[in-house]
Amino acid sequence: MKILKFILILLCITTFLSIFIFNKEALACEITPFMGFKETYPEIYADDSMKKTEQGNFIELVQKAKKRVDEAFGKMSSNPRYIVSKNSTYWKFGFNPTGMARSSLFRECVFIGPKGINIDVIAHETAHAEVFHRANFFTKNFKMKPWLLEGSGTYVDYRHPLLLENINIDSSKVNQVMELSDFSPREIWAYQASRVAFEKIDPKKLYEGIDRLNSGESFDAVFAK
């Protein structure tokens, strides 16, 4: 019995350390208040690189981005922590200078860099945070395909290269992206192909589909080609 308890405790400690050692974003998410960031609004943090007026504008952008996600997919159930900075020091440690969403132990976080302080990037990453929040561990790490994740992100991202009317991509590229297990942020064609692929999804049923994945259904059964 003691051995079993020891193994369980060791497993918990190992899992905890793995998350924070190999996922620096998760660690940063949790220790934000101790990294020189101040809470300018509930769950919105900014550092001294942001002027007061910029902090206020960012709060408005977050609110508008959340509304865009609500209108696209349905009411959000998550309340992500937003962390914004124009300080290049953070981005030298692997953080995306535009934006990214990550899950920590207790919450989802949206990191916004100097290139991402606009409603489109914030909405894109907010959509990711909501999907992360709704997906269980197994769905998020083993079942979710990147085209669906990025397709939902680009659906609420109105930047010029991601608008359907501006995308001219061969169907073979769309089929290709649907088979990928990952792709680089530099591969614009993959984001465009994901946006096209997402057209076959009813956006109002995205959350329902994630619930079905959580319940054990296969990805292809829920989001069939």
Instruction: List the uncertain runs.
Output: none
How many domains would you count in the coordinates?
2
Order of helices and strands: HHEEHEHEEHHHHHHH
Terminal residue distance: 49 Å
Specify the CATH architecture of the largest domain.
2-Layer Sandwich
Provide a descriptive summary of the structure in words.
The protein is an alpha/beta fold and 225 residues long. The chain folds into two domains: 23-134, Zincin-like; 144-225, no CATH class. Helices cover 52% and strands 9% of the residues. It is built from eleven helices and five strands; from the N terminus they run ααββαβαββααααααα. α3 links the parallel β2 and β3 (81-84). The longest helix has 22 residues, at 52-73. The chain is globular, with a radius of gyration of 18 Å. The mean pLDDT is 89.
Short summary:
The chain has helices at residues 2-22, 24-30, 52-73, 88-91, 119-134, 137-143, 146-155, 171-177, 188-197, 206-214, 219-222; strands at residues 38-41, 44-46, 81-84, 99-103, 108-112. The protein is α/β, with parallel strands linked by helices and 225 residues long. The protein has two domains: 23-134, Zincin-like (2-Layer Sandwich); 144-225, no CATH class.
Record the SSE blueprint.
Layout (H helix, E strand, L loop, with lengths): L1 H21 L1 H7 L7 E4 L2 E3 L5 H22 L7 E4 L3 H4 L7 E5 L4 E5 L6 H16 L2 H7 L2 H10 L15 H7 L10 H10 L8 H9 L4 H4 L3
Parallel strand pairs: 2-3, 3-5
Antiparallel strand pairs: 1-2, 4-5
Helix pairs in contact: 1-2, 3-5, 5-7, 7-9, 8-9
